[in-house]
Specification:
The complex is a heterodimer of chains A (161) and B (796). Chain A has 161 residues and is an alpha+beta fold. Chain A has two domains: 76 residues, Beta-grasp domain (Ubiquitin-like (UB roll)), CATH 3.10.20.30; 72 residues, [2Fe-2S]-binding domain (DNA polymerase, domain 1). In chain A, 34% of the residues lie in helices and 16% in strands. Chain A has a five-stranded mixed sheet, sandwiched between helices. In chain A, a hairpin with a 2-residue loop joins β1 and β2. In chain A, α2 packs across α5. The longest helix of chain A is centred in the last third of the chain and has 18 residues. Chain B is an alpha+beta fold. Chain B has three domains: 157 residues, Aldehyde oxidase/xanthine dehydrogenase, molybdopterin binding domain (Aldehyde Oxidoreductase, domain 4, 2-Layer Sandwich), CATH 3.30.365.10; 72 residues, Aldehyde Oxidoreductase, domain 4, CATH 3.30.365; 337 residues, Aldehyde Oxidoreductase, domain 4 (2-Layer Sandwich). Helix content of chain B is 30%, strand content 26%. In chain B, strands 3-6-1-13-10-11-12 form a seven-stranded mixed sheet, with helices on both faces. A seven-stranded mixed sheet of chain B has the order 4-8-16-15-14-9-30. A four-stranded mixed sheet of chain B has the order 19-27-28-29, sandwiched between helices. In chain B, β11, α8 and β12 form a beta-alpha-beta unit. The longest helix of chain B has 28 residues. Classes of the chains: A alpha+beta (161), B alpha+beta (796). The interface between A and B is large, with 57 and 59 residues.
C-alpha cells in the first residue's frame, strides 16, 4: 500500500511525514514521530489510554487514521509541560495526589482532564467521575484521580489569577 | 559542611519518584523501545478450543509484501526447549513430607504441532517489516483443523469417558492437594448443625492496561541475547531462555522496563518465541499483544467451584470445616498448586477453625491456562467462607457481625499456629494482629449500627440497601529471597539495584525511603533501578505481596552496612572513631571538631590500588550487597465493610460505600499503601459485579473485547475509605507486612453479602460471583416466583 504524505501540527511543531492510509493516528504518532507517550491499551476505543487532543477536543488516536489528521493541530502528553520542563498543573496534581500507579493509562487521563477543565474550570465530583468514565485505570481505584482533578482545577485557577 | 537532619522518610507520604517521567509520557514501556532494524511479529491463533491440526502451511505468507519469515510448531521442533515448570520444581521437600500433594508434569509448548487446546492458542508466527504487513501475512497462512468436543469446565473434564487432554497426565487431574487436621468426620457427626453449600467463582482476567510486549535482539558475534519484556520476573525469564535456547545464562540479559500493571505472573509462549525468532533470523524482533489476544489468554484466573461444609453449634460457633474444590486450570496447569494451596491456606481466614479437611483438584480443560492473579486463590476462599458465615448467621438468627465476633481468633492467641504448613513448607503461624479490634474499628468507622437502624426506613421507601462484611488474612512477603546492591558515588548519591520488579507499586520510591533512612542521606539523593538481570545476579520479582517485605528489608540492611563502611573509611582518613562521625550532604564530618572529608575523598580512599585506605578486613569499594531470606511469610490482614443498593428492575448493584481496615505492619509510605488498597478494592468490585471471561459450550470466547468484558470505571467505583491497624511483623527487622493484594481479596464476599442483605425480604442466596446484572435479575425472578408459589401452596 502506497504511503501518503501528510502535514500536521503536533504540540506546536509542524511535522511532515508519510503513512499508508490504513495506519492509525496512534501508530503514526508513536512509530512515525517517536511520540511514545501516547499509549495503546485496547485499540478499539474503550480504554482511553490513547486519548489526545485534536484542535482542542479529545479523540481516541487508535480510532483515527493518520491521514485524517492531515492539517489538524494535535496535542499529546508530551505537549503538556512547559518548554522549560515545568509540569502542567494537571501533571503536578496527578503526582501530588498519587493519581497514578503504573502510569500506563495516565497520558490518556491527563488529556481527557485537560479537555474537562477547559470546558469547566471547577467540576464537581459527579461531573469528574462521569467525564472520566471513558478512561480505564486498573491500578488506582479512581479516587486519587478524582482528587487530582479537583486539585488541578485549583492549581489552574490560581495560575490563571 | 551542613549536617543533615535525621531524614525519617519511612512512614511519610513522600511523593513518588516514578511520577516525574510517567506524567510526562516519558516512561519507557517495552512497546516504546525500538531496537533499530527490528522486525514485527504477529501471531496466528487457534479459532477452535480443541482441535487436531491436520495441515499447516506457513509458506504462502512469504509471498505477502513485507513478510520476511514465518514459522509453525514443526519449524521449532528441536530448536526450542520446553518451559521450566518452576512452580512444580519449587515445591519444597518439607512441604511434600507434610501434605498429601501430587503435581504432574506437563509443560506448555511454545507452539503446538498437532493439536490446539484453547481458543487463542498461538499456532504460527509471521515476521514482517511492520505489524500491518505481519498481520497481512497471517491471512495467508493455511491451516486445516479437525475440531473435537470441548471440555468447558472441570466437572465435564472429570466425567467418565471425558477425553484425556494430555496422555502424560493419565487423566484430567493435573494436581491434587489434601490437607487435614483433627477428627473431621467425628466433629461433623457430633455437630448439631451442618451447612452444605456450593460456591462458584467465575473466570476472571487480570487486564493490566499495558498488554504484554516482548522484544529481542541477538548479537551473533558475542552470542549474546538481549530481551525486553513486560514481565515482573525478569530473572525467571532469563533462566528459561537460557535453557530453552541453549545459551549460557550470563549471555542472556533480560530487561523489564516500566510495566503497566500486571497483577499477576506467568510465562507465555511469546516470551520464548520472540527471542527464538531473533536468534533464528539474526535480526531484532518485536511483538506487542493486542487487547483481543490479551482477553483470550493473558492471566485468566479464579474459576473455582467449592463444595463447602461447616459444622456449627447452636450459638453459631464453627466446629469443623470440610471443603472439596475444583480449579479449572485451563489447558495447562503451569502453576502447580500455587493458587490452590493459597486457597486452602487462606480458607479459614481470621477464624479459629482447628478441625478441617481441604481437598483441591486442578483440572485441565479446553480453556486458556490460568495464572496467579492479585489475590491468587484468596478471593475464592474468602468468598466461600464469608458467604457461608452469613448463611449460618441467618440460620442462627444472628447479625453477620455477631457471628464473626464469636469465631474470630483472639489477640491473646497470637502468634497463632494454624495446624498446617504454609506453601513454603514452614509451619503456618499468624504472627501478629488483633482481628476482633479490626472488626470493631471497621464497624465503628462505617457506622454499622446506624446503617442497620436506617435500613428498615429505606426499605419502607422502596430502597433496597444492604451491608456486607468480609475479612481476610494474607501470607505476604513470600521467599525464598530478594536482594539489593547499594552503592555510593563520588557526589554522595546512593544507587540501589534490586531483583524485585514493580509494575506500578511505587517501589522506586519506597525502597529509596528505606535506603535514605538506613544510609542517612536525603531521599532525593537515592535512585533505584529495577528490571535488569545484568545488574544483580539473583532476583525473584513481584507476586505474593512480597516486594516491600523482602526487597525493602534487603535494601535496608545493605544500606546500613554501606553506611558502616563509609564511616569506617572516613574514620581512617580523619583518624577518629566512627562513633564520632556523621554523614553530611557533602561527606563525613567529625562531630564537634569541624573537620571532615568529602565523598570524593572517601571514594578515592575506598578504591582499590596503592592509595586504598579501607580498614583492615574490609574489601575495597563502596558497595554492599545483601539478600534477605525471610524465615517464612508474615500475615497481613484486613476487614472490609460495603454497602450497596440494588435496583430490582435492572439487577444493577451500586456500591454506595466501601470501607477497609487493614494491618500491613510498618507502612513505608501510607500514601502508596492506601493507593494499593483502593486499587485492589476497585479490582475486587470488578471481580464481584462486572468482570468475567466467558466461554460458550464449545469454549469459544464470548468476551473478546471491552464491550463484553466490563472493567469498572470511575462511575462504578465509590470513594474507598481506608483505615489502618499497625501490628509490626517480627519476621523482618523493619516490621513490614505486604499490602499489594489484600484490597482485591474481600470485595466479592463483602459485596455478595451486602446484596443478599439488601434483598433479605426475598431470601435470595448468592453463591456465585461475578454477580452480573443479568445473573442477579435471574435470582430475583426465581425468588419472587418461589414466594408467589409458596403463598399459593400456603393458601391451598
Amino acid at each position: 500500500m502506497a504511503a501518503r504524505e501528510l502535514v500536521l501540527r503536533v504540540n506546536g511543531v509542524e511535522h511532515r511525514g508519510a503513512a499508508e492510509p490504513r495506519v492509525t493516528l496512534a501508530d503514526f504518532l508513536r512509530d512515525g514521530l517517536g511520540l511514545t507517550g501516547t499509549h495503546l491499551g485496547c485499540e478499539h476505543g474503550v480504554c482511553g489510554a490513547c486519548t489526545i487532543l485534536l484542535d482542542g477536543r479529545s479523540v481516541r488516536s487508535c480510532l483515527m487514521l493518520a491521514v485524517q489528521a492531515e492539517g489538524h493541530d494535535l496535542t499529546t502528553v508530551e505537549g503538556l509541560a512547559s518548554p522549560d520542563g515545568a509540569l502542567h498543573p494537571i501533571q503536578e496534581a496527578f503526582s501530588e495526589k498519587h493519581g497514578l500507579q503504573c502510569g500506563f493509562c495516565t497520558p490518556g487521563f491527563l488529556m481527557s482532564v485537560h479537555e474537562l477543565l477547559a470546558h469547566d474550570p471547577a467540576p464537581d465530583e459527579a461531573e469528574i467521575r462521569s467525564w472520566l468514565s471513558g478512561n480505564i485505570c486498573r491500578c488506582t481505584g479512581y479516587q486519587n484521580i478524582v482528587e487530582a482533578v479537583q486539585y488541578a482545577a485549583v492549581l489552574q485557577r490560581e495560575a490563571d489569577r | 559542611m551542613t549536617a543533615t537532619a535525621a531524614p525519617g522518610f519511612v512512614g511519610q507520604r513522600v511523593r513518588r519518584k516514578e511520577d516525574a517521567r510517567l506524567v510526562r509520557g516519558a516512561g519507557r514501556f517495552v512497546a516504546d523501545i525500538t531496537v533499530p532494524g527490528a522486525l514485527h511479529a504477529a501471531i496466528l491463533r487457534s479459532p477452535f478450543a480443541y482441535a487436531g491440526i491436520t495441515r499447516l502451511d506457513v509458506s504462502p505468507a512469504l509471498a505477502v509484501p513485507g513478510v520476511e519469515a514465518a514459522f509453525s510448531g514443526a519449524d521449532l521442533a528441536g530448536r526450542v526447549g520446553a518451559f521450566i515448570e518452576g512452580a512444580r520444581r519449587e515445591i519444597t521437600p518439607s512441604l511434600l513430607e507434610q501434605v498429601d500433594l501430587e503435581v504432574k508434569s506437563c509443560p506448555l509448548p511454545v507452539l503446538p504441532v498437532d493439536e490446539v487446546l484453547w481458543f487463542g492458542q498461538p499456532v504460527a508466527v509471521v515476521v514482517a517489516r511492520d505489524r500491518y504487513a505481519a498481520e497481512d501475512g497471517l491471512e495467508a497462512v493455511e491451516v486445516d483443523y479437525d475440531p473435537r468436543t470441548a471440555l468447558p469446565d472441570a466437572e465435564s473434564a472429570l466425567a467418565d469417558g471425558a477425553p484425556v487432554l494430555h496422555p502424560e497426565l493419565r487423566d484430567n487431574v493435573a494436581a491434587r492437594l489434601f490437607i487435614s487436621s483433627g477428627d473431621v468426620d467425628a466433629a461433623f457427626a457430633a455437630a448439631p448443625h451442618v451447612l452444605r453449600e456450593r460456591f462458584t467463582f467465575g473466570r476472571h482476567a487480570a487486564n493490566a492496561m499495558e498488554t504484554r510486549s516482548v522484544q529481542a535482539s541477538y548479537d551473533a558475534g558475542r552470542n549474546e541475547l538481549t530481551v525486553w519484556i513486560t514481565n515482573p520476573r525478569p530473572h525467571l525469564i532469563r533462566l528459561n531462555l537460557s535453557q530453552m535456547l541453549g545459551l549460557p545464562l550470563e549471555n542472556v540479559r533480560v530487561l523489564a522496563p516500566d510495566i503497566g500493571g500486571s497483577f499477576g505472573t506467568g510465562l507465555f509462549a511469546e516470551d520464548a518465541l520472540i527471542p527464538f525468532l531473533a536468534l533464528a533470523l539474526g535480526r531484532p524482533v518485536r511483538w506487542t499483544e493486542d487487547r483481543q489476544e490479551s482477553l483470550a489468554m493473558t492471566r485468566h484466573a479464579r474459576d473455582q467451584v467449592h463444595d463447602l461444609e461447616l459444622a456449627y453449634d447452636d450459638e453459631g460457633r464453627i466446629l469443623a470445616l470440610r471443603d472439596r474444590f475444583l480449579v479449572d486450570a485451563g489447558a495447562y496447569n503451569a502453576y502447580a498448586v500455587t493458587v490452590s494451596y493459597n486457597t486452602a491456606a487462606h480458607l479459614r481466614g481470621q477464624y479459629g477453625i482447628d478441625t478441617f479437611s481441604i481437598e483441591g483438584l486442578n483440572v485441565v480443560t479446553t480453556k486458556a491456562p490460568v495464572a496467579p492473579v492479585r489475590g491468587a486463590g484468596r478471593p475464592e476462599a474468602v468468598f466461600a467462607l464469608d458467604r457461608a458465615f452469613d448463611l449460618i448467621a441467618v440460620d442462627r438468627g444472628l447479625d453477620p457481625a455477631e457471628i464473626r465476633r464469636r469465631n474470630l481468633i483472639r489477640p491473646d492467641e497470637m502468634p497463632r499456629a494454624m495446624g498446617m504448613p504454609y506453601r513454603d513448607g514452614k509451619e503456618m503461624v499468624y504472627d501478629s494482629g488483633d482481628f476482633p479490634a479490626q472488626l470493631e474499628q471497621a464497624l465503628e468507622a462505617f457506622g454499622y449500627d446506624e446503617l442497620r437502624a436506617q435500613q428498615a426506613a429505606w426499605r419502607a421507601e422502596g430502597r433496597l440497601v444492604g451491608v456486607g462484611i468480609s475479612s481476610y488474612v494474607e501470607g505476604s512477603g513470600f521467599g525464598p529471597f530478594e536482594g539489593a546492591v547499594v552503592r555510593l558515588d563520588q557526589q554522595g548519591n546512593v544507587h540501589v539495584v534490586t531483583g524485585a520488579k514493580p509494575h506500578g507499586q511505587g517501589l522506586e520510591t519506597t525502597l529509596a525511603q528505606v535506603c535514605a533512612d538506613e544510609f542517612g542521606v536525603p531521599f532525593d539523593r537515592v535512585t533505584v533501578t529495577t528490571g535488569d538481570t545484568a545488574l544483580i545476579q539473583y532476583g525473584i520479582g513481584t507476586f505474593a505481596s512480597r516486594s516491600a517485605v523482602t526487597a525493602g528489608t534487603a535494601v535496608g540492611v545493605a544500606a546500613g552496612r554501606l553506611r558502616t563502611k563509609v564511616l569506617a573509611v572516613a574514620a581512617e582518613l580523619l583518624e577518629a572513631s566512627p562513633a564520632d562521625l556523621e554523614l553530611t550532604t557533602d561527606g563525613v564530618a567529625a562531630r564537634d571538631v569541624g573537620r571532615g572529608v568529602s565523598y570524593e575523598e572517601i571514594h578515592a580512599a575506598a578504591a582499590p590500588g596503592p592509595r586504598n585506605r579501607t580498614p583492615e578486613g574490609l574489601a575495597p569499594g563502596l558497595e554492599e550487597q545483601y539478600y534477605f531470606v525471610p524465615p517464612t511469610v508474615t500475615f497481613a490482614s484486613g476487614t472490609h465493610v460495603a454497602s450497596v443498593e440494588v435496583d430490582v428492575e435492572t439487577g444493577f448493584v451500586r456500591v454506595l460505600r466501601y470501607l477497609t481496615v487493614d494491618d500491613c505492619g510498618q507502612m513505608l509510605n501510607p500514601m502508596i499503601v492506601e493507593g494499593q488498597i483502593q486499587g485492589g478494592v476497585a479490582h475486587g468490585i470488578g471481580t464481584a459485579l462486572f468482570e468475567e471471561a466467558l466461554y460458550d459450550e464449545d469454549c469459544q470466547l464470548l468476551t473478546g473485547s471491552y464491550m463484553d468484558y466490563l472493567l469498572p470505571t470511575a462511575d462504578e467505583v465509590p470513594p474507598i475509605e481506608v483505615g489502618h491497624q499497625v501490628f509490626l511483623s517480627d519476621l523482618n527487622p523493619f516490621g513490614i507486612k505486604g499490602c499489594g493484594e489484600g484490597g482485591a481479596v474481600s470485595p466479592p464476599a463483602a459485596i455478595a453479602n451486602a446484596v443478599v442483605d439488601a434483598l433479605r425480604p426475598l431470601h435470595i442466596n448468592v453463591n456465585r460471583v461475578p454477580l452480573r446484572p443479568e445473573a442477579l435479575l435471574d435470582l430475583i425472578r426465581q425468588a419472587k416466583a418461589a414466594t408467589i408459589g409458596g403463598q399459593k401452596e400456603g393458601e391451598g
